[in-house]
């Protein structure tokens, strides 16, 4: 697997500290030990034609892999999302800060001799790259699972993970980075002279409805609807719930039965998203 080698090289780069990632070697080792694969290989050797293998005789669940493969992958995905969210939140809160905190960060950057704009761009790029390369890694290892097992359990697992808010492409902080990239690009004095966080990110309109669209490598595309599903208008002062759905701040507060003064932090943590009905506050 060529991607596996590239992924390992990326994760072994000189990061400040070791970042959580997908244990490709460990997961592939689990799949190699799978009895169902041995069964399939044996069946192929015993027949001269591929059609002789009766796929229907292979059960949907694998007792060998399912007890170790999916729990291990879920743990790794949780660590990856947690790390990304924390780093992205720290990055954006610092860059969008105002007052004393903003000038303090600027002063520190000057003392360190950093080109603030370029350093800012590079840090944002690193965050986006970390999110995307792990999203691709997870997708590829699940495809490998389904290919070996002749099943769709990998796709089903991915759907379940999305409902659990463990999918990194659903992270509200990735949406914030995308929006920040557009704002940064629009405020540049000389367009085309300064680098942006990532290319292919734009604000588009379809049937009069706005959406945030980003196209990344390996055919990954993200479309974020910017229409509030409560007031059915373009989101104003938008907030994203943990499920990834975006609402107007006032609408989200109203749905959570809290005042705009106290904000969403005072909402009952058991409150559900008005759209997907998952616990998201």
TrEMBL record:
The entry's keywords: Metal-binding, Transferase, Ubl conjugation pathway, Zinc, Zinc-finger
Segments forming domain RING-type: 228-277
Recorded metabolic or biological pathway in which this protein acts: Protein modification; protein ubiquitination
Entry's EC annotation: 2.3.2.27
Residue ranges of the TM segments: none
GO molecular-function terms, A-Z: ubiquitin protein ligase activity; zinc ion binding
Substrates-to-products reaction catalysed: S-ubiquitinyl-[E2 ubiquitin-conjugating enzyme]-L-cysteine + [acceptor protein]-L-lysine = [E2 ubiquitin-conjugating enzyme]-L-cysteine + N(6)-ubiquitinyl-[acceptor protein]-L-lysine
Protein name from the UniProt record: RING-type E3 ubiquitin transferase
Matches recorded under InterPro entries: BAH1 (IPR033326), SPX_dom (IPR004331), Znf-RING_euk (IPR027370), Znf_RING (IPR001841), Znf_RING/FYVE/PHD (IPR013083), Znf_RING_CS (IPR017907)
Gene3D superfamilies (alphabetical): Zinc/RING finger domain, C3HC4 (zinc finger)
Organism: Crotalaria pallida
